[in-house]
């Protein structure tokens, strides 16, 4: 018994060693098997080795195939992902049996290659695939029915390289209904550019099939001649983040409730001339950051609730397209993440004869719209203009005299924080309607124009942070309207006192003359005339201390 006991104690660790060794051999064999399949795959593919960043580096001498570029393995050594996008592969995929033997594969990316063959049916054997990207790879012809076996797919991208070519992918047999009927896990569907034209009379089957996939978050069906209406069931897709239906020949009215899907970020309906609709009110916590309705038949006004879309960014606005709107009366694009592009417009094309309100503050303007100037004389053609705000841009050049000459309608002119230079034109006309004039933070030189006295309604004058050289503007001392006077950071000089009368600056409330070269004494009598700065009594009419400009409310 004692001998057997010690023998047993010896055999236990031996079994453990042998057992562990056996497991190691199985794992090693598995890795070797996967490496062999990868090398067979490389041998079957045709590609330009001088441009390859992945396949060209796969070789027998490298022991760890799981560390090869484009290869990902699980902890057991099985290949679970192949990223072979942009590898200049031109052929061989149709006979790549090694690829179809990678049964553990969950992710396959062959995008941006140079195939000119059909999608190989063998991909349908990779039933563990969750991500399949064959976009822009040159695949043509009918999408094989075998792909419908990939029931675990979460992302499917079949977008073609040449969407308008006759040689592109088609979905006829199976149609979309049969193709996705078992794809219960699908969340991202990219079929933009895939020929679905045979389904034009089958929108109801599409409706029935797609409506069951309410976990879809991305739907792209661009560049298809669907010739149909947009079904309202998309509004039931609570996870939807992207709906792109560009150039689908859509018709009828677009369902308003789709705009209000809470997590929807991108909505592209552009280039559907027969698609009509209007933009509804937006919810407070909307996620939309891009809405494209160009070249559609949408009408109506933008709701004020568009301000609820805190993530919205609209990109670059080409001003030459806006310039063709001859009946435009109001244009407000200020304080967005927009870049207004005026580089392709010339001075004669910017007319806007009916324009009354133009706000382009903080739009990154550098050219507007004449290449030889940043503010052109053509802006003066907008003879009905009441509010012009170009502040916080990068405009340079001089201020066109005609802009001030035509200020009998202009109530607000804000050119602050640009790169304007030269002098302020002395061309303010009799009957000047300006109430706010802001030319601050530029490079303007010279003096304040004498004709400013013609602006009897002027309430705010801000010329701070320029290079003006002048005396204190006593010419404005009798103004009954002026309430704000900013002269800061210029080269004004001399005394700040004007001829003493009881009516000097009587409504002035704010004055800033810091960082200049003023001299002399400030006496008490000088300030005692400034009644506007004093505490108002109970008899002051309501609203007297509120500076505002009530421009015409346009629909």
Automatic annotation (TrEMBL):
Gene3D superfamilies xref list: Ribonuclease Inhibitor
Signal sequence, renumbered to the chain: 1-20
Pfam families: LRR_1, LRRNT_2
Domain Leucine-rich repeat-containing N-terminal plant-type: 32-74
Cellular localisation: Membrane
Membrane disposition: Single-pass type I membrane protein
Keywords: Glycoprotein, Leucine-rich repeat, Membrane, Repeat, Signal, Transmembrane, Transmembrane helix
Record InterPro entries: Leu-rich_rpt, LRR_dom_sf, LRR_N_plant-typ, RLP23-like
GO CC annotation terms, alphabetical: membrane
Source organism, top-level taxon: Eukaryota
GO BP: any one term: defense response to fungus
Descriptive protein name: Leucine-rich repeat-containing N-terminal plant-type domain-containing protein
Organism (species): Solanum verrucosum
């Amino acid at each position: 018994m004692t001998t057997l006991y010690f023998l047993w104690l010896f055999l236990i660790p031996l079994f453990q060693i042998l057992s562990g060794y056996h497991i190691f051999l199985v794992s090693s064999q598995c890795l070797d098997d996967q490496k062999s399949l990868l090398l067979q795959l490389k041998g079957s593919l045709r590609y330009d080795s001088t441009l390859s960043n992945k396949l060209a580096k796969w070789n027998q001498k490298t022991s760890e195939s799981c560390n090869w570029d484009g290869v990902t393995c699980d902890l057991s050594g099985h290949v679970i992902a192949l990223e072979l996008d942009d590898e200049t592969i031109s052929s061989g995929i149709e006979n790549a049996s090694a690829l179809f033997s990678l049964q553990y594969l969950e992710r396959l990316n062959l995008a941006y290659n140079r195939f000119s063959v059909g999608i190989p049916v063998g991909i349908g054997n990779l039933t563990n695939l969750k991500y399949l990207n064959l976009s822009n790879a040159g695949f043509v012809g009918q999408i094989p029915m075998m792909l419908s076996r990939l029931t675990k797919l979460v992302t499917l991208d079949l977008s073609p390289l040449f969407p308008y070519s006759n040689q592109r992918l088609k979905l006829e047999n199976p149609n979309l209904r049969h193709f996705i009927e078992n794809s219960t896990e699908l969340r991202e569907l990219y079929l933009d550019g895939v020929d679905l034209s045979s389904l034009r009379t089958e929108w109801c089957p599409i409706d029935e099939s797609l409506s069951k996939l309410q976990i879809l978050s991305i739907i792209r069906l661009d560049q298809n001649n669907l010739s149909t209406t947009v079904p309202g069931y998309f509004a039931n897709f609570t996870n939807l983040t992207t709906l792109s239906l560009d150039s689908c020949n859509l018709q009828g009215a677009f369902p308003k409730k789709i705009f209000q899907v809470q997590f929807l970020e991108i909505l592209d309906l552009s280039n559907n001339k027969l698609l009509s609709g209007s933009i509804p009110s937006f919810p407070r916590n909307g996620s939309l950051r891009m809405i494209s309705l160009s070249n559609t038949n949408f009408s109506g006004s933008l709701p004020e609730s568009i301000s609820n879309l805190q993530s919205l960014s609209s990109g670059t606005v080409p001003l030459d397209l806006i310039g063709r709107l001859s009946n435009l009366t109001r244009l407000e694009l200020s304080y967005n993440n927009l870049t207004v592009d005026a580089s392709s417009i010339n001075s004669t094309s910017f007319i806007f004869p009916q324009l009354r309100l133009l706000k382009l503050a903080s739009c990154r303007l550098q050219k507007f719209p004449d290449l030889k100037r940043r503010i052109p004389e053509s802006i003066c053609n907008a003879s009905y203009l009441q509010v012009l705000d170009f502040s916080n841009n990068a405009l340079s050049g001089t201020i066109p005299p005609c802009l001030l000459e035509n200020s009998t309608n202009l109530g607000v002119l804000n050119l602050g924080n640009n790169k304007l230079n030269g002098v302020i034109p002395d061309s303010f006309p009799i009957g000047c309607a300006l109430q706010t004039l802001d030319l601050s933070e530029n490079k303007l030189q010279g003096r304040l124009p004498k004709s400013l006295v013609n602006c009897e309604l002027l309430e705010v004058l801000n010329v701070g942070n320029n290079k003006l050289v002048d005396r204190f503007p006593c010419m404005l001392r009798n103004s009954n309207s002026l309430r704000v006077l900013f002269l800061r950071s210029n080269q004004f000089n001399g005394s700040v006192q004007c001829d003493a009368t009881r009516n000097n600056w009587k409504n002035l409330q704010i004055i800033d003359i810091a960082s200049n070269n003023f001299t002399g004494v400030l006496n008490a009598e000088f300030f005692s005339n400034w009644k506007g700065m004093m505490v108002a009594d109970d008899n002051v009419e309501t609203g007297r201390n509120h500076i505002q400009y009530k421009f015409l409310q346009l629909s």
